[in-house]
């Protein structure tokens, strides 16, 4: 018998936070202790409650973020671009203060002969009572903390991960344990002990460069300009936990989620289109499909298949890399549409009934007699038809 057909175009949606010009934090960004948040969604505003907005200098310009969203990160030219946060009192950390800094960046290249600063706190005159916080890279990515004019912590030696073009760097100071911790892409790289020091002063922070304090006359000279992108920078007045830092790293290949694909809403003949959410990865990918159907097309980031029969469907995405192999799988079983038929009346007299058999629970009916039951009374001669609709609107 004929049945109602509803074409469904399904997509697999990425599960990452999609940036927008809003003060709503991404779900993986801890709000507890957050004293500065720079998502760079159309501007350099601090979207924490303290509103320590950044000022743009040079030709720093908006660009795409790690999810491909337009105007959601800043691009620095490595010549004279930088963003200044003028002496925020909330970002002054003394000897007894814990703090954490997390920053995303995508450099144009890693030049072992060129020092480039990502995020820097520095002021003049250089010396006691001042802390200098540095996130930078030279031959390796590193973090540095300097208080009282002496170097109290300097962690170097972490190479950039070859599996990602965007990198996430995290610096955590534990004042109680007198230690400094450095994470790269959500994983702890190293921890060191640091000596005590006195309270610090309020001086500016800089994105994309550093300052050098000449003596005399204590002028701030811009140096170490960074070339590349910076995004989603947060500062907390507490220690972030390891699990919180891992959650901030939101582009892991293995964490791709297939949302929007509901096997309960698929019908025979529907065209299923899926998208790889691994847009950050620099390697090509391969889809491997185990389905009852053969009508399947794919490219590096998408697949498309027409559902032609019930059965087991499995979609597996492989990263084509011997350095960073990984895969992710999604599967479901689609029940076949039941074999439905109509039982003719026992006799050809008025008052008899026509019955639909074979339909499962949850199916609906619409006869041309206006009956919505699984049966209809035969009150006249003529053609009797029924539309049988499954719970998936098939």
Automatic annotation (TrEMBL):
Please state the span of the N-terminal signal peptide per the UniProt entry: 1-20
Q: Which GO terms describe its molecular function?
A: hydrolase activity, hydrolyzing O-glycosyl compounds
Stretches of the chain forming a coiled coil according to its record? none
Alphabetized, the UniProt keywords read:
Signal
Domain of life of the native organism: Bacteria
State any GO BP term from the record: carbohydrate metabolic process
Q: Which InterPro entries match?
A: ConA-like_dom_sf
- Write down what this protein is called: LamG domain-containing protein
């Amino acid at each position: 018998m004929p049945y109602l057909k509803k074409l469904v175009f399904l997509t697999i949606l990425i599960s990452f936070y999609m940036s927008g010009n809003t003060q709503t934090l991404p779900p993986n960004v801890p709000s507890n202790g957050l004293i500065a948040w720079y998502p760079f969604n159309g501007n350099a505003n601090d979207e924490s409650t303290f509103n320590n907005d950044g000022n743009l200098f040079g030709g720093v310009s908006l660009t795409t973020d790690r999810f491909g969203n337009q105007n959601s990160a800043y691009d620095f030219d490595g010549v004279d671009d930088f963003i200044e946060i003028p002496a925020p009192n909330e970002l002054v950390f003394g000897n007894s203060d814990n703090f954490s800094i997390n920053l995303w960046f995508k450099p144009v290249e890693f030049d072992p002969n060129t020092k480039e600063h990502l995020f820097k706190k520095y002021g003049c005159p250089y010396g006691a009572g001042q802390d200098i916080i540095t996130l930078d890279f030279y031959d390796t990515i590193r973090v540095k903390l300097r208080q009282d004019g002496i170097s109290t912590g300097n962690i170097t030696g972490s190479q950039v991960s070859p599996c990602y073009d965007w990198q996430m760097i995290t610096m955590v100071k534990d004042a109680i344990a007198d230690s400094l911790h450095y994470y790269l892409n959500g994983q702890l790289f190293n921890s060191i002990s640091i000596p005590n020091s006195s309270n610090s002063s309020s001086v500016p922070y800089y994105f994309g460069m550093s300052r050098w304090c000449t003596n005399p006359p204590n002028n701030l000279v811009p140096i170490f300009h960074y070339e590349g992108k910076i995004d989603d920078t947060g500062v907390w007045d507490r220690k972030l936990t390891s699990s919180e830092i891992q959650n901030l790293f939101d582009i892991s290949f293995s964490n791709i989620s297939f949302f929007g694909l509901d096997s309960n809403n698929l019908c025979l003949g529907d065209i299923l289109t899926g998208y790889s959410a691994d847009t950050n990865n620099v390697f090509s990918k391969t889809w491997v499909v185990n389905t009852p159907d053969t009508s399947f097309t794919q490219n590096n980031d998408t697949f498309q298949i027409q559902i032609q029969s019930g059965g087991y469907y499995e979609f597996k995405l492989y990263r084509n890399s011997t350095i960073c192999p990984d895969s992710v799988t999604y599967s479901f079983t689609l029940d076949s549409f039941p074999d439905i038929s109509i039982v003719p009346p026992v006799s050809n007299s008025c008052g008899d009934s026509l019955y639909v058999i074979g339909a499962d629970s949850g199916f609906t009916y619409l006869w041309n007699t206006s009956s919505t039951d699984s049966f209809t009374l035969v009150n006249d001669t003529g053609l009797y038809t029924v539309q049988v609709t499954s719970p998936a609107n098939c």
